Structure formats: structure tokens, C-alpha cells
Amino acid sequence: MEGNVAEMGQFIGAGLAAIGSGAAAIGVGNVAGNFLAGALRNPSAAGAQTATLFIGIAFAEALGIFAFLVSLLLMFAV
Amino acid sequence: MENDATDDVTAGEVPDTEAAVDAVGVTAEADHGGGLSFHPMDQFIVKPLFGDAGDPVYWYTITNATFWMLLTVACVALLLIVATRGRAIVPSRGQSVAELAYGFVHKMVEDVSGKDALVFFPYIFTLFLFILFSNFLALIPTSFSPTSHIAVTAVMAVAVFVTVTVVGFVKNGTAFLSLFWVSSAPLALRPILAVIEVISYFVRPVSHSVRLAGSIMAGHAVLKVFAGFAALVLAAPLAIFGVVAIYGLEVLVAAIQAYVFTILTCVYLKDALHPHH
User: Fold this and answer.
1) Is the pTM of this model over 0.90?
2) Do B264 and A66 lie within an 8 Å CB cutoff?
3) Which of A64, B102, B134, B239 is deepest in the core (most CB within 10 A)?
4) Is the ipTM above a cut-off of 0.90?
5) Which residue intervals define the domain V-ATPase proteolipid subunit C-like in the entry (chain A) (predicted)?
6) B263 touches chain A (CB under 8 A)
């Protein structure tokens, strides 16, 4: 049971930061689910909105990426 | 005397660094080299194609990253130059793929960024095809994926960021700064929103590049993790199903990430050309 406490904290922090990726998954699912709900109500208008869907998904995903980045920084750069 | 001493030091240093590089190369190979016990991140190591560590050849040959990027460019050129050479009224298979890709990106630029953004269509089309082909070529087993490296995607994202900023200031002058001044919000909120908008503007190249590199890298690492299960007899069926399922997902991700990178470029370009909210 020897080891570096700072390293342990680093790994625990990286794992905690990875929770953010799961939160981003909820966000992306929310965007896609609401799009589908709207698209099934009015299928004729759905085709024109696919670009908006992907932009929305990309913005929701960006915050998950920051969590991933923090996790990577803790693992490899700190 | 002093000159001699420095000469000695420099002469002594060169073999040392080479030996150190040698040792690193050897341990990287020895730690998780052959057999089924490999590290999932080993596939992302950039290494020269020819020569052993320490040889002079080793330092001057192209790396696997260069090779796969060149192959990507060659495939794009093959599609756009050779396949469309016939210019038939009824297109061949290759020609119709090239025409579909062209029409798809052309329509995207026009719809998202407006007609005046079509000046930038060649740039955006180049980005799209490079990312798409490099993602698809990376799906060949034992290949190397250039877009999984932050160095490659960061160059593309920073190039887009610089282009968009320069275009914004050239087209609109200082009126481009109204991008950060949300005129539809209540006056009291606007300074706070301006700070948030400025931060989100400068974070763009980070999220733009890490999104592509992260999803490609994570997908390929997961593939290798599932492939590693094949070493255990009990987990071998899981390895087969896992690899097949994740591979199917990765084909989808390869196309979607190329699309997302391109459409975000279009959105940023729209902000530069029409900064008024």
C-alpha cells in the first residue's frame, strides 16, 4: 500500500471529471429526443431541420468534451 | 580550454540522447509488443516507417501519420480527378459519388452560411473530404488514424478560427464586435452576456478540434479494448460481438464527425459574414 497521494488524487479527479461526459450524453439524448418528438408531429418540416439538430447536438457535446479534456489533462499533463 | 570543455560536453551529449531514445523505443516495444496483450493506445504511436531506432534513416523517413495523410489526399484526388474524368451525362458510380459529395457540401454551405459564403466553398469542401476519407481509411484494420491526433485536428480548427476572425473583421470592420453584444437581450444583461460570448468565441477552436480527435480516438481505443478480450477464452464471444458492433458504430461516427466539423465551420462562417444577432 505504497504510493503517491497526489497521483491518487489525480486519478480520482480524472474519474470524477469523466462524469461530465455522462452528463453531456443526457444533453445530447435530450436534443435528439425532442427533435424526434417534434419530427413525428410534423414530419414534413423535419427534413429542413436536420442541420439545426446536428448543431444542437454539437453544442451540447462541446461541454462533455471539456469534461473529457479536464480528465485527460489530469491524467497526462498535470 | 573552455572550447575544449564545451566540445566534450556536446560530443558527450549526442550519443546520450540517442541512447535515451533507443531505450524509450525498446521499452515501448517490449512492454506490450507482441501477442494479444497490447495496450489500447499503442495504435496511436507515431513512428517512422523505415529504419530502427538510432539509425540516421530513422529520423529522416516519413512517419505512419504522414503516410496515411498522403494516402487520404491520394484517395480524394482519385475520387475527384480520375472518377469524374469521363464527365458523362449519365454518371458512372465513381462520378456520381463525387457529384453527390460536391452537391451535399455545396447545399450545406449555401443553407447554413448564405450565398455570399460560397467563396469559401472550396476550402470547406477540402476540409470535409479530408476528414471523411481519413476517418474511413482509419477503419482499415492495422491502419493509422491521423484525425485521432489533436495535432492534426488542432491545425484545421485553428486555421478555421483564424480565417473566420480575419474574414469577420475584413467584411464588417469593427461592426464584427457586435457579435458579442447581444442586442436582443435586456440592457442590464448585455455586459454579462458579452463576457460569456467572448469566452465562448475563444473556446471554439478547442471544442472544434477536441470533438473530432476525441471521438475518433475514443472509438478506436474501445475497438482495441474489445479486441483485447479475445485473449480470454470465456470472453472471446464478447470480443467478436463487441468488435462488430463498435465497428458498425465507428463507421457512423466517422461520417457524422466529418459532417459536424464541416457544419460548425459553416456556422462560424455565418457569424463572421452576418454578425448581427
Assistant:
1) no
2) no
3) B134
4) no
5) 12-74
6) yes
Domain spanning A5-77: CATH 3.40.50.720: no
User: What is the residue extent of each domain of chain A?
Assistant: 5-77
Residue B211: its chain A contacts at CB < 8 A? 58, 61-62, 65
10 Å CB burial of residue B190 (0-12, 13-18, 19+) is: middle
Predicted confidence (pLDDT) per residue in B232-241, tens digit: 778 888 888 8
Domain residue spans of chain B: 1-58, 62-273
Amino acid in the structure at residue B274: H
Distance from C-alpha of B74 to C-alpha of B78, rounded to nearest angstrom: 6
Rounded to whole angstroms, the Cα distance separating B76 from B137 reads: 11
pLDDT for the residue numbered B208? 92
Chain B residues with CB under 8 Å of A65 CB are 207, 210-211, 214
Residue B266, exposed/middle/buried by CB under 10 A (0-12, 13-18, 19+)?
A: buried
